[in-house]
Design brief:
Elements lengths: L7 H4 L11 E6 L5 H13 L5 E5 L4 H10 L8 E5 L22 H15 L4 E5 L10 H18 L2 E7 L5 H10 L2 E10 L2 E11 L9 E5 L5 E3 L11 H11 L1
Parallel strand pairs: 1-5, 1-6, 2-3, 2-4, 4-5
Antiparallel strand pairs: 6-7, 7-8, 8-9
Helix pairs in contact: 2-3, 4-5, 5-6
């Protein structure tokens, strides 16, 4: 396996080494922790002094920077944010020099991402949060072609990427095609137990060695820090409150 990035967070899921050019798919329902997990991984990556490119169509630049600040990263030079969100709010193009004027021209997105990937250097992280929004403005086959192009360029540049999808809102054939493009598929879920919400995460499949496909409880502290707990067979309603308190104590 080609040597690549390392992540203390993903190591909790038995992913000790991330191969160069690895494409992750984070899939799950709204509120299951996909974006929070991605923010944690992004902050972890940036504090190592590495570069990253984030394409956002769901959050403002201010919200992203505030979240990263709470997680301990207060810089600005290493992170390049492509803003596909501001025009959705009716505010027009943002102050960012990497702003999109719409989401229906996938060529513009491809060109801007490729341009930034060419300057950020090897082992950079690319995040797309999230692809599901594109399907409100484009056909599924067009989005698949965009992902194929991005995947080829990311692998050529030896960067790694996280692509976020909402589950159960697109055609199954579309999900199957996108999963085939990815090197590692990570499932997120959220369940209600006696009036409380509990999140968990697992590795669904990967094209490189991994040893754990079990669900791991996930807790999110008040500062946004994510804690992946040891795997359990089922969500134990008596054990989970104890895990939740432990997270608050550690944060």
């Amino acid at each position: 396996m080609p040597e690549g990035a390392q992540s203390r967070i993903l190591a909790r899921l038995s992913l000790e080494q991330i191969p160069k050019g690895c494409m992750f798919l984070f899939q799950g329902p709204s509120g299951s922790g996909k974006t929070v997990m991605t923010d944690n991984l992004l902050a972890e990556h940036l504090v190592k002094g590495l570069n990253a490119v984030k394409l956002t169509v769901t959050r403002s630049l201010e919200n992203i920077r505030e979240s990263l600040g709470q997680l301990g990263w207060l810089g600005s030079e290493q992170l390049f944010i492509i803003d596909g969100y501001s025009w959705l709010t009716g505010e027009g193009v943002s102050e960012s020099k990497y702003s999109l004027s719409g989401l229906s021209n996938l060529s513009d997105i491809s060109i801007m991402v490729s341009k930034l990937l060419s300057v950020v250097g090897e082992n950079s992280l690319f995040i797309f949060d999230h692809v599901s929004t594109l399907l409100s403005y484009n056909e599924e086959n067009q989005v698949v072609k965009l992902l194929q192009t991005l995947a080829a360029r990311l692998r050529e540049a030896h960067d790694w990427a996280i692509i976020i999808f909402e589950s159960d809102i697109h055609n199954q054939s579309f999900y199957n095609t996108v999963r085939f493009l990815m090197d590692c598929v990570v499932d997120f879920r959220i369940e209600e137990i006696e009036g409380s919400l509990y999140r968990s995460v697992r590795i669904h499949r990967a094209r490189f060695p991994y040893s754990d496909t079990r669900w791991h409880p996930v807790e999110i502290a008040t500062n946004g820090k994510i804690i992946i707990q040891p795997s359990i067979i089922t969500l134990d309603k008596d054990r989970l409150p104890t895990l939740r308190k432990k997270v608050e104590d550690e944060s």
